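Objective 1.3, modelling of assemblies. Example input:
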Amino acid sequence: GAVVSQHPSRVICKSGTSVKIECRSLDFQATTMFWYRQFPKQSLMLMATSNEGSKATYEQGVEKDKFLINHASLTLSTLTVTSAHPEDSSFYICSARRLAGAGTQYFGPGTRLTVL
Amino acid sequence: TQLLEQSPQFLSIQEGENLTVYCNSSSVFSSLQWYRQEPGEGPVLLVTVVTGGEVKKLKRLTFQFGDARKDSSLHITAAQPGDTGLYLCAGLTGFHGSSNTGKLIFGQGTTLQVKP
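Predicted structure (tokens):
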């Protein structure tokens, strides 16, 4: 199976600071990666689609200046939460899709962000 | 807005019982993926169904894709405590293999608890 890693798995930061989360596809190339946010006992909410070499596509209601996405290579996408506030505390999950196939997406283990 | 209605949202059963989870939509999907998620972890892919009417089996789990590719079901036979978790269905929409576009639409999730 395809493996997607995320780093860090947990991060605690002070309000007003920025936090960067990395997402890597370890054994396949992913031209497209996705960033999701999940609240307790709820399903996943798509935040943005990250395309290698181009600007990310953000879902309605997601602030692109607050959630900066960089997809610098075929195996790495980063999400930076800028000027984090307590309401940004959440579980952030990335996923990657293989270039070929039925469009199956493989998910990372998630990053728990707590903003104090 | 495309929706994927998943039911039931909560299910608590005794070990050995059978259960079925349903995902229904008015939209046609290129494929449908089922995931299982443990608390604090990312979703793990169980299966991808692509063809209308397709049935896939994974040990005690049986997945079916509707003939019209608008709905799917997950049936678990003789549930065990190890089956406890959050089950998510996700339909792929707007997918074009050559350009790797498209995104997953998630159901609300089914929280399954299997008591010993």
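Chain B has no helices and eleven strands.
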